[in-house]
Q: What sequence folds into this?
């Protein structure tokens, strides 16, 4: 996950809010875990472990798992689950050839220095070790980003705060992994519309609060404008909201 250092422009994380508004993130990880195919006794690194729910599932499969995240709140939550969880930036991993596999779910798009992430993962793996991940791919939340940018342009805001993510196309990410030494076994772009059980407002305030906070006393008005822009595209006739998710899933190997 992104860092939660005290900067109002950076993404802030709360394990409680994440559980309320984004539990679907770990609930929808079945496919990427199947690609990982963890075996009892393997030592696996979970990059961007979040609140540790999915990491705990890996541990329950008999895996010796280490979780890392740059959010102190998430690390505290993970440790409370009895996990070996370490406060560490995914763009500066400090491991050397000790893991059979490196795993990541819904985290790498928060790490824009993707070459540094890939290099750190490569170093962390034993020779023959595998890297399996799923995160936002090209086209992910495109409607949401476009609506925020429209609000930002109208209000003279910082448009970069509308899209802080790294959402690569498959061929772009494959090339990145290969130049960092990996051999890519398989890679896929997967459309995955996700029904938001707590609505679009909860999603926006969990994942993009810094964008709206920049407008100060008019933050709520900016939020309402963005929601109005999104309603025709993402809200059905019964008032149910669906996020336009597209995921990139990859399996690569360190020779």
A:
């Amino acid at each position: 996950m992104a860092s939660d250092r005290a900067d109002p422009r950076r993404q802030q994380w709360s394990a409680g809010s994440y559980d309320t508004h984004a539990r679907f993130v770990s609930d929808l990880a079945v496919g990427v875990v199947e690609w990982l195919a963890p075996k009892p006794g393997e030592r696996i690194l979970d990059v961007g472990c979040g609140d540790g729910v999915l990491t705990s599932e890996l541990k329950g499969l008999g895996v010796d798992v280490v979780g890392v995240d740059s959010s102190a709140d998430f690390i505290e939550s993970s440790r409370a689950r009895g996990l070996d969880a370490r406060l560490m930036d995914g763009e500066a991993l400090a491991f050397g050839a000790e893991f059979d596999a490196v795993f990541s779910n819904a985290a790498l798009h928060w790490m824009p220095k993707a070459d540094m992430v890939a290099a750190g993962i490569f170093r962390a793996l034993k020779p023959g070790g595998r890297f399996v991940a799923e995160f936002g791919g090209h086209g992910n939340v495109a409607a949401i980003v476009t609506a925020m940018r429209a609000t930002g342009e109208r209000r003279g805001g910082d448009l970069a705060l509308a899209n802080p993510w790294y959402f690569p196309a498959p061929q772009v990410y494959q090339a990145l992994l290969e130049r960092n030494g990996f051999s890519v076994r398989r890679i896929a772009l997967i459309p995955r519309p996700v029904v938001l059980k707590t609505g679009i407002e909860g999603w926006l305030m969990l994942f993009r609060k810094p964008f709206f906070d920049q407008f100060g006393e008019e933050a709520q008005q900016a939020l309402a404008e963005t929601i109005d822009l999104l309603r025709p595209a993402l809200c059905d006739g019964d008032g149910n909201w669906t996020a336009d998710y597209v995921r990139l899933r990859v399996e690569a190997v360190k020779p």
In short: The chain is about 40% helix and 20% strand. Confidence is low (pLDDT under 50) at residues 1-6, 13-26.
